[in-house]
Amino acid sequence: MPAHAAEKTYQIGTDVTYPPFEFANSNNKYVGIDIDLMNAIAKTENFKVNIKAIGFNAAVQALQSGQIDGVMAGMAITPERQEKFDFSDPYYKTGFVMAVAKNSHIRNFKQLRGKRVALKTGTAAAAYAESLKAKYGFRTVIFDDSDNMYNDVTTGNSIACFEDNPVMQYAIKTGLKLKIVTKPAQGGHYGFAVMKGQNQELLTKFNAGLRKIKKNGQYNKIVNTYLDNSATKQQQELNSTTQKNNHTFIGLLRQNKDALLKGLGKTIELTLVSIICATIFGIFLGLLGVLPNKFAQSISVTLIYILRGLPLLVLALFIYNGIPSLTGTKISAFAAGVITLSLNEGAYTAAFVRGGIEAVDTGQMEAARSLGLPFSKAMRKIILPQGLKIMVPSFINQFIITLKDTSILSIIGLLELTQTGKIIIARNLEGFRIWTIVAVIYLLLITILTWFSKLIEKKLAEK
What GO molecular function terms would the record report (predicted)? Predict the structure, then answer.
């Protein structure tokens, strides 16, 4: 085989909250049936993979926009998906089941009439449930991740949820307080997906590697590692043994501190870079709005209106998935996140920059011009120093808003603090405690920034 073929590295997207197919273990290393199968096949066929745990929806959208080469994420092969994607040979057979709370009296679909059912967005199990909705008269609510879907049932907000059978079995055996009440239905198959007509070489390698690891027994060994009764029983016993130590707030913090610190670091990095870019863009846009030029003012007003009017989530998806689809140029999740925050927060910054300048008595500009100072020098020497005192509190407040808005960018797979929390919860199902820890971290950061803001306001007031 040529040397360059051995060095080929494919970008593979996967889910982050779908055990036993993909999840982070107690060491916060990505493992699971899909992860292990892909790595085994890559090794067998002599190619490399960079597996990106970005979430199912983000992975599918990234594949469609050309950001990644394939998706390996417990993806059911359906006729609708085959219209857009080329699938590998099936690598796992599954079926959909309904699960309810342990003390629930629900036993069949007929008992769902008039009640609410929880589903996970984008899954084949959700599509199956939707196909039953009209017949059995139940309502549905959609969640982005499995943990929130499960919690909606355990807390009684929803009466049931639909999930792939092996996923639900694994979750229950490792501690989830639900029970399966239906037999697996609409048996389907999981497949590895690439865009239709693209990456056919990768698809051929995957199929060849899958056949080889099935023949040599490696496939069964991988699957049994996660689904064998003895393995799940051992995991359940481990969960029970460590419940008191590792499932307390202190235990969870100690066990996941490295992952949380890494997520916090990414959040801070994203915030700092974005606020710098947003400040530069916002000042430019704000100054454009006060120039004695109707055309410049119109550009400023229009951009501020558009960028403030777009929901941050929509803007993030457009930049990360929409622009690459139009231009064919890949954009990293971090770059897309920075651009999103810079445009959105920059528009707000521009608004208060313009407002701060306009708050300065107009007579001062007139007096400066009457003394022969050009507009630019009068603005720089007289107006801006006074407007700055008015703007500074708003600048700090915008910094805080930018910090909080980074959590929305988990939608494009950025591994910041919120996404880190989702990944940890997928493993231990401790949603309340983990989100409490994440909330406290955000609150501490915001408290520090608020204190800093008040300190600056005080200093400025003394001058």
Answer: ligand-gated monoatomic ion channel activity
